[in-house]
């Protein structure tokens, strides 16, 4: 009997009682049916196989993240951190959840509100994702915590995707993805919430590597068949999505990607001569710059109509040197290493008194070995001593690594960018993340080669590398103290609940002491950005802190009579504030609480930890209205909110001296900025103190006065300025020898604003020299007219 072909044998079907008999299928129909089943089965197996490695990456990353952060102790509503820069990002999250226009926050910076466009960062995509998470919860602390935690598996998946696109074995790509998601110190990066979204970096690196290898980031739509045209269109859509994603996830990662894309174009030009292909390859770079630039312009557009008074939070070229990285930081373990001996090694280095980097640049032992391997292969190829030519991909990675290091290191190309293009990208040490990714990719390619030769040995090697890397790069002992964070938030919530119950919605609360935003620095026991803490839990009130320094919305506070408490509370009441809050951590012996209690009566609310106390101003307003009348009260409000303010050119580098005075180190000179908020010309007299860096003679020249000699010690100077409105610059020029200042720069001395007087007695005047509420030392005599 002839045997039937397997493709024509019909499979037995179950017989249903009472059902009519089915007609027998022909051999051709059976073959077609089995063929379809075979194709569907093969497709299902391919999908399952393709999803296996990403699923393993996701699960392993989630497990490592949960262990590292001890997420089993977290509860919805618990903040990751309530200090420092973490408060800034959580305030942005709150503003997004409130549904207001991006970059405009009326909740802070009362009475005008905050216009964040003066400090644009191109974080649009992060804000969109935060708003989507807001569908799950309206709590800014919950949404910020979720966004931070979800960034770990997201980073693992994008790094895994990149490794697979570059040809890594699925098991090796799992190692790359998981280790990239927990790069050293990632678990402590909540203070920079959007920068902690490392998942954008592998997307940008794909653009860079693809361009450097000569591959098409964008494919030509002219294809001979519809199928090829659809494939090209799909490829282009994906590439454009990646470009836009990188461009809208922060100016730092976009700029780093753009700089490496420039390097990739050079590599491509060397590998494939020809202007046409080079111009086509430059299209993604142009789109990336246009995307990020458009976001920055959109943010700056929100600042139209705002009055700038000087002293905006601008970066300097020197900042690029200070915030760049060091090669030693890449080699040493991170300071939070779980092994005490390795952590102590880094601590000993940091205690040598050398200039320290502002953020951790450690990349971990696995990425470090990968970087060393890339450099060794590159060096051997350069001297022609390799037995066989290195793989083109390894060569490309080896060329990108020194390029990234050249921008990362102090005295490198980052400083050149700051000098010739813009100094706004000051923290070049953050390029260590890209260095770590290149090193991990090199390790992934090495494991791939091992897996293809000896699968079992390669699998064991992947497991060992993953275990060693996770142990080296994470430390559960540094997980947030969730119980302490819950207690701190509960204290704030209880305080703001009582305050909101005592005040009508929309009331403005003045926060004392005055701290400038951003980057004021700590004040007594009060950390930078601490005034934002009650704004996270109080949602119906407005708060005075948060307007951008160097603008009229913030600098009116500089002219408040902080040494005259009765006049101060009257001014605040006239300006429309209904309460004044005292943060006792910002004061020493000059804490005004007792005096405010005498002036205003009992407090409206006091926090359970005794740190915050709020007093009512409504009775003060009523008394002023009854005594002076509505017209006089309106004139007083206008005088309070529209003073003349004097600022140093670079407030960020001004130093706090004894008595709370601020001074600026100068070389051959600097500029003072007089901001006139009154809307009419004002005659301003400035009294300045110049102190030479040593006793050698120097000459100081001010506009409208004869040059004054300074032969050592301090000299008092007087300048008369006509401030016509807006910003008026007052140049101060110093002639004479320079010397090395405390920060290592060449300087001639330091300059202080001692006093500023306006001819119109009805106009208030303020200066930025004082960072504490302690009285500054006034000179015994002033220079003559």
Report on the architecture of this protein.
The chain has 24 helices and 20 strands. A hairpin with a 5-residue loop joins strand 6 (605-606) and strand 7 (612-616). Helix 4 (140-165) runs parallel beside helix 6 (200-213) and helix 8 (251-271) runs antiparallel to helix 10 (283-301). Residues 1-13, 650-660 and 770-785 have low confidence and may be disordered.
Provide a concise account of the structure shown:
The chain has about 775 residues and is an alpha+beta fold. About 45% of the residues lie in helices and about 10% in strands.
Task: Draw up the topology in text.
Layout: H1 27-69, H2 85-97, E1 104-105, E2 114-115, H3 124-133, H4 140-165, H5 170-181, H6 200-213, H7 226-247, H8 251-271, H9 275-281, H10 283-301, H11 317-322, H12 327-331, H13 340-350, H14 365-382, H15 392-408, H16 413-420, H17 432-453, H18 455-473, H19 482-502, E3 508-512, H20 533-537, E4 542-543, H21 552-555, H22 565-574, E5 579-583, H23 593-600, E6 605-606, E7 612-616, H24 618-641, E8 644-648, E9 655-656, E10 662-666, E11 669-676, E12 682-692, E13 698-701, E14 708-710, E15 714-723, E16 726-735, E17 739-740, E18 746-747, E19 749-758, E20 765-767
Parallel strand pairs: 3-4, 3-5, 8-20
Antiparallel strand pairs: 1-2, 5-7, 6-7, 8-11, 9-10, 10-19, 11-16, 12-15, 12-19, 13-14, 13-16, 17-18
Helix pairs in contact: 1-4, 1-5, 2-4, 4-5, 4-6, 5-17, 5-18, 6-7, 6-8, 7-10, 8-10, 8-15, 14-15, 14-17, 15-17, 17-18, 22-24
């Amino acid at each position: 009997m002839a045997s039937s072909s397997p493709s024509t044998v019909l499979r037995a079907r179950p017989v249903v009682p009472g059902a009519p008999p089915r007609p027998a299928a022909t051999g051709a129909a059976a073959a077609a049916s089995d063929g379809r089943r075979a194709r569907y089965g093969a497709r299902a197996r391919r999908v399952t196989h393709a999803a296996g490695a990403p699923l393993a990456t996701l699960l392993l990353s989630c497990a490592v993240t949960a262990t590292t952060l001890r997420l089993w102790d977290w509860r919805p509503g618990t903040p990751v951190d309530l200090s420092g820069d973490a408060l800034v990002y959580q305030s942005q999250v709150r503003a997004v959840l409130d549904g207001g226009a991006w970059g405009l926050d009326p909740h802070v910076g009362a009475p005008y509100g905050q216009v964040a466009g003066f400090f644009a960062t191109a974080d649009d995509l992060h804000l969109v994702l935060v708003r989507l998470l807001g569908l799950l919860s309206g709590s800014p602390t919950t949404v910020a915590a979720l966004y931070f935690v979800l960034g770990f598996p997201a980073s693992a998946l994008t790094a895994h995707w990149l490794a697979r696109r570059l040809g890594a074995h699925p098991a090796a790509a799992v190692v790359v993805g998981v280790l990239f998601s927990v790069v050293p110190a990632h678990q402590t990066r909540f203070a920079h919430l959007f920068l902690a979204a490392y998942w954008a970096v592998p997307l940008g690196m794909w653009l860079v590597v693809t361009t450097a290898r000569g591959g098409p980031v964008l494919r030509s739509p002219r294809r001979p068949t519809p199928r090829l045209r659809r494939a090209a269109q799909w490829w282009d859509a994906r590439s454009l999505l990646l470009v836009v994603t990188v461009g809208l996830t922060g100016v730092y990662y976009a700029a780093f990607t753009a700089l490496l894309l420039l390097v990739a174009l050079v590599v491509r030009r060397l590998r494939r001569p020809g202007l046409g292909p080079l111009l086509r390859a430059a299209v993604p770079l142009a789109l990336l710059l246009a995307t990020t630039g458009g976001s920055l312009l959109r943010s700056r557009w929100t600042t139209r109509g705002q009055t700038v008074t000087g002293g905006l939070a601008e970066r300097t070229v020197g900042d690029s040197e200070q915030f760049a990285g060091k090669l030693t930081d890449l080699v040493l373990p991170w300071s939070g290493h779980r092994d005490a001996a390795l952590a102590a090694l880094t601590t000993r280095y940091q205690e040598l008194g050398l200039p320290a980097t502002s953020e951790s640049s450690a990349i971990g032992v696995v990425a470090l070995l990968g970087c060393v391997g890339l450099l060794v292969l590159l060096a051997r190829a350069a001297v022609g001593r390799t037995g066989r030519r290195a793989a083109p991909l390894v060569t490309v990675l080896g060329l990108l690594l020194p390029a990234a290091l050249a921008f990362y290191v102090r005295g490198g190309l980052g400083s050149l960018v700051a000098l010739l293009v813009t100094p706004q990208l000051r923290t070049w040490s953050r390029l260590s993340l890209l260095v770590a990714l290149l090193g991990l990719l090199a390790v992934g390619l090495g494991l791939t080669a091992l897996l293809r030769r000896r699968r079992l040995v390669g699998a064991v090697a992947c497991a060992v590398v993953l275990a060693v890397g996770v142990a080296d790069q994470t430390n559960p002992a540094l997980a947030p103290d969730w119980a302490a964070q819950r207690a701190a938030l509960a204290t704030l919530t209880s305080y703001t609940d009582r305050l909101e119950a005592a005040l009508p919605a929309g009331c403005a609360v003045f926060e004392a002491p005055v701290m400038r935003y951003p980057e004021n620095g700590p004040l007594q026991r009060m950390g930078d950005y601490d005034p934002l803490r009650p704004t996270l839990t109080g949602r119906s009130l407005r708060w005075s802190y948060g307007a951008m320094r160097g603008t009229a919305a913030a600098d009116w506070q500089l002219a408040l009579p902080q040494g005259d408490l009765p006049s101060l509370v009257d001014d605040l009441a006239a300006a429309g504030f209904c309460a004044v809050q005292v943060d006792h951590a910002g004061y020493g012996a000059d804490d005004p609480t007792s005096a405010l209690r005498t002036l205003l009566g009992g407090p409206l609310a006091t926090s359970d930890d005794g740190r915050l106390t709020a007093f009512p101003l409504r009775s003060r307003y009523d008394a002023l209205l009854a005594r002076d009348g509505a017209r006089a009260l309106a004139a007083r409000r206008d005088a309070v909110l529209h003073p003349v303010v004097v600022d140093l050119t670079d407030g960020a580098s001004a130093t706090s001296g004894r008595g709370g005075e601020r001074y600026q180190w100068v070389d051959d000179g600097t500029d003072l900025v007089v901001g006139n908020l009154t809307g009419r010309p004002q005659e301003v007299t400035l009294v300045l103190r110049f102190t030479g860096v040593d006793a050698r003679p120097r000459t100081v020249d001010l506009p409208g006065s004869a040059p004054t000699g300074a032969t050592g010690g301090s000299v008092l100077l007087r300048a008369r300025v006509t401030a016509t409105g807006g910003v008026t610059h007052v140049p101060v020029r110093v002639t004479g020898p320079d010397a090395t200042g405390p920060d290592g720069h060449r300087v001639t001395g330091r300059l202080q604003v001692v006093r500023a007087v306006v001819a119109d007695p009805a106009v208030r005047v303020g200066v930025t020299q004082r960072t504490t509420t302690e009285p500054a030392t006034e000179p015994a005599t002033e220079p003559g007219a």
